[in-house]
């Protein structure tokens, strides 16, 4: 009888230890997954925000006021699609990570963050797929006409010359400016949404 009790106690102890080990293992796996998700989210956010600041306030302005206008446009036609494609992928990644790992309930703060991430991703996808291609086509046609009269080598300004009287050129120019302005407004909305994300991150992070 005594041996039976000892065996039962040993089995119970072993079972308890196994359960504790399983719980600890699950907790460790959850913590590791949460840490990786946090790293991925912060990395995506930092890359997204950094590229926005660089393209909007450093690269674009520096090149525009340093290079001939057509050379600047040739640089932008390479950078522009990649910029919006990269940021769209980063925004979608952040949205997925946030919903999967950090959304614990539909609070006001969570709703604002999801809305900001969704709006950011939507604008960047629309710009990359539907606005950037026609803008670049118009730019090529515009530059072709300007090149025929020797325009486009001015730095930091637009000199139309005799093209002011050309209806065809003016239609292309106005269409180009309209799409370009739409993209610029979209980019600023995205930048504001990113700053909103930065605010919510600042609420969570404590530097000590």
From TrEMBL:
It comes from the Eukaryota. It is found in: Membrane. InterPro entries: TMEM205-like, Xanthocillin_Biosynth-Assoc. Coiled coil: none annotated. The chain crosses the membrane at residues 39-64, 84-103, 109-131, 179-202. One of its GO terms (cellular component) is membrane. Keywords: Membrane, Transmembrane, Transmembrane helix. Pfam families: DUF4149. This is Transmembrane protein 205 isoform X3. It comes from Drosophila hydei (Fruit fly). The gene is LOC111594080.
